[in-house]
Amino acid sequence: MPITPLPPLVVLTGPTASGKSALALSLCTQFKGEIINADSTLIYRHLNIGTAKPSFAELNSVPHHLIDILAPELAFSAGQFCNKAQKAIADIEQRQHIPFLVGGTMLYLKALLYGLSTLPTASIEIRAKIMAEAEEYGWQTLHARLKQVDPKAAARIHVNDPQRLQRALEIYYLTGKAQSDLFEAPKQGLALQSHRVLTIALIPADRKILHERIAARFDAMLDAGFIEEVAALKERPELHATLPSMRAVGYRQVWGYLEGDYDYATMREKAIAATRQLAKRQLTWLRRWPDIHCFDPLNSHTFDDIQHCLRNFLEKAA
């Protein structure tokens, strides 16, 4: 009895400002693909300039999924992403198109491809308690507390990353177990056991050029009205500085500038530095990623090489 080939799934990832979006548009046009967003900021409505959201023309040139699906006052988990992404994959395959999972939120990608750890759902009460403690004692104190109960998480989470710090403490308060131990426990099963997956990563060989691209892109955002975008968001009564959407890189720094915490030059410096740190974390994830095909986006032959790689993959999947 002949074996039915598994349907293909293409993952396109890499650090911020590496050129994922432009490459995805070109590949989807050529290979009858549709894009499923895997960037945790593009899911939010009204966050446009600072997320480098695709233009109206780009969104209409190739079908996009999981963009502008959530109000900025709401949270969005990796589990929710997996559920919506798998539905999008099924819809795309019904049209006999190829799903392209595109983005740099590595937790989303890992959860979808390799399964989720068994973690408790968020608790409004516990989160309010942690926020009250942070306001009274400072995040440095809470980071020290995390170091006592979960040293691995404390080493991984920076003291200036309150969202992840809050989540790690919340998990401990809810379960009495370290987040790191739950991460390392056996997963509940692969989310995509029934697909052949090709993972393509854009990794610039010259980090200096990546840093220059990050700075140039942020300056272009400022010129396009990024400060005005954040100012408009800041006027919305349901939004505040501690929300995940407003903690996003760039938004957090511009919000602080509008609050008068620092001047324009310092805001720009902080935002660019934070984006570089984000890129560094993304690259750290990718260094440990299994079965990955890496390409330098700065190489003039990269697009042809990726086309060749993708064409071979699809021929084998047929």
Summarize the structure.
With 318 residues, the protein is an alpha/beta fold.
Please explain how this structure is put together.
By secondary structure, this protein is an alpha/beta fold. The chain folds into two domains: 8-116 and 187-317, P-loop containing nucleotide triphosphate hydrolases (Rossmann fold); 124-184, Histone, subunit A. 53% of the residues lie in helices and 9% in strands. It has 14 helices and six strands. The protein has a six-stranded parallel β-sheet with strand order 3-2-4-1-5-6, sandwiched between helices. Helix 5 (124-137) packs across helix 8 (162-175), helix 6 (139-149) crosses helix 8 (162-175) and helix 11 packs across helix 12.
Structural domain count: 2
Number of strands: 6
Average of pLDDT: 92
Can you give the helix content as a percent range? 40-55%
Unreliable spans: none
